[in-house]
Design brief:
Helix content: 25-40%
Mean pLDDT: 94
Order of helices and strands: HEEEHH
Largest sheet: 3 strands, antiparallel
Distance between the termini: 27 Å
Low-confidence stretches: none
Number of domains: 1
Oligomer: single chain
Number of helices: 3
Strand content: 25-35%
Radius of gyration: 13 Å
Number of strands: 3
Amino acid sequence: MSEEQIRFLSQQEAMRIVAAIQEEEDIHNPDKRILTVYNHEDKELCWFDFDELLEAVGPVAKGEQKAAVEKYILNHIPDWAADI
């Protein structure tokens, strides 16, 4: 069984299809937060675990955290999201 490698859209392509990144409560675990990514038709494209995302982004100044998270997300939108 082979593992599929996830391919990501370019940041430019992601910026064209992403309309919003919304912080929400994980419905399966109320103590966890997720960031859900929506397109311009208000359809969910994908989501990111907030704690895992902050760990992946790494340490940044508090005032730069939002921009760093947005940049990370825009660079990690799976290519299949373009078909939604």
